[in-house]
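Blinded run. Sample ID left blank on purpose so nobody reads anything into the name before looking at the predicted structure. Input follows.
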Amino acid sequence: MPHIPKYWQVSTNSKAEPRAEVRLGAARFTVLFDRLIRMEHAPDQMFEDRPSLAFWHRQTDPPQFSVKYPENDRMTIETAALKLHYRETRLGFTPETLEIEIKESGRRWRFGDNNPGNLGGTVRTVDGKDGPVPLPPGLLSRSGWSVVDDSGMPVLNQESWVENRGNNHPDLYFFGYGIEYRQCLQDFLALSGQIPMIPRWALGNWWSRYWEYTQQELWKLMLRFQQEDIPLAVCVIDMDWHLVKNNQGRRGWTGYTWNRELFPDVEQFLADMHQRMNLRISLNLHPHDGVWPHEQQYQAMAAHMEVDPASRQGIAFDIADPRYAEGYFRLLHHPHEEIGVDLWWMDWQQGESTAIHKLDPLWWLNHLHYLDSGRDGRKRPLGFSRWAGYGNQRYPIGFSGDAVVSWQSLAFQPAMTATAAN
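Blinded prediction complete.
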């Protein structure tokens, strides 16, 4: 495996304290907090201690709890808030073998139960939607409980690179918080990772429009904002910053080469936007189609990927490959940052699978882009992307996608923003 840069290597403490673990047969239960229990079933006894994408910090200070064995194949774990009953059979976890009672309310969860009171979470995108959209479950629920299914999700190895877990054994996290919603979120963050502080400038007004404009037109527009005393913090340049038309038969969404017809002196333009307008610059990014011979960076990327440039063979996008990821950042992105690009807008909508089982490419892109943006230690890291699942709270900031412009969509946005916190 190629060398993984230090700034991609993250600090985790994923192995729980031994005193938090209770085993019966092929089951392992880990009491992480009074109201949060991890539940695994592995007939081969291969329980998972590596950090998964969502859960990095299982080494909590476990609460006081008791364990009783009414019979050899039965067990009860009791904390101050929960009472878990389990009966070991060859069937593993079933509604008949696994049950948890929330003591303060008397409500009971059985394995596989639906959650009618769930308050909802968030969605990857509202592209093309007009008004409300169905929301998947979040962590908070009027039912008093929620379950996060981490079964088979990828894990991080010792170098913090993602890899297959190797099995699909049941791996569930039961959150039995009743109406203690704040505590539920706090405990999740303790397990998964905190939400980092963003740069102060990111709290200002952002401007963007999907339009083919020249640098002169864009400069005049930014100047107009300044003249009208309308404050802006970020100018987001949509995809036409790069070459869209090409002779490769590609759709043109992916690109890394500046369109010099629209931006003939981009180096000076970016310098002026920073120095005279006091703006940060973000570029739109659709990396799915890889790197093709019409790109200025093709020769270097081909050599890096050990592809003969004379073959004019396209270099397929594969962010799960550490060699590709290294070239992707060092050759395709860092040169743009050196001339003044502050932030990448990851506008990914081109698939949800990679060569690694259950690894969403957007999840790993968010992870790597965030870490890469802080590689020199001189600024707060920041990414701009869609939500890709639990753990992505570590990589601000998110956007909801391209909703239909309507009163119905506008009315839904505050509700979706609130449930996204779940």
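Unblinding after everyone has recorded impressions. The helical segments are 181-192, 215-227, 266-275, 298-304, 322-332, 334-338, 361-373, 407-420.
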